[in-house]
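Dear Dr. H.,

I hope your travels went smoothly. While you were away I took the liberty of generating a structure for the chain from your last submission, since the lab meeting agenda had it listed for discussion. I wanted you to have the full record in hand beforehand rather than looking at slides cold. The sequence, exactly as received, is reproduced here:
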Amino acid sequence: MLQPKKTKYRKVQKGRIKGMATRGSQIAFGTYALKVLEPTRLTANQIEAARIAITRYMKREGKIWIRIFPDKPITKKPAEVRMGKGKGAPEYWVAICKPGRIIFELDGVDFQIAKEALALGAQKLPVQTKLVTRKDHVG
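The corresponding predicted structure, in token form, is as follows:
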């Protein structure tokens, strides 16, 4: 029986981001969360920059969950290369985010610290976001 050829990464087409998020749209771990309001592709560098901004403001107290993972390779061919000769090498990795997707969750800090930390993290992202809290949270 023939086995499929194994590659380092799977070849993925761009596609369009349609509809609202159904999976990952509810707070699952923390008390406060940052929710995406428009369709986007977040790169690994953007996610990491937001994470660093959030943890620095929280002074490494409390807990943070990152609910997205950049698992889609974006390829690019070098400049001034002729057409053909296959697909380009992976340039960077992105996470596909539909509107309503939770990207960060926080717990173990009070509301004011969480609000400011998530606002600083949102500044690092090229997309509109919103702070949401858990439904059963009092405070």
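Two observations you may find useful: The first strand starts at residue 32 and ends at 36. The CA atoms of residues 20 and 34 lie 16 Å apart.

With kind regards,
E. W.
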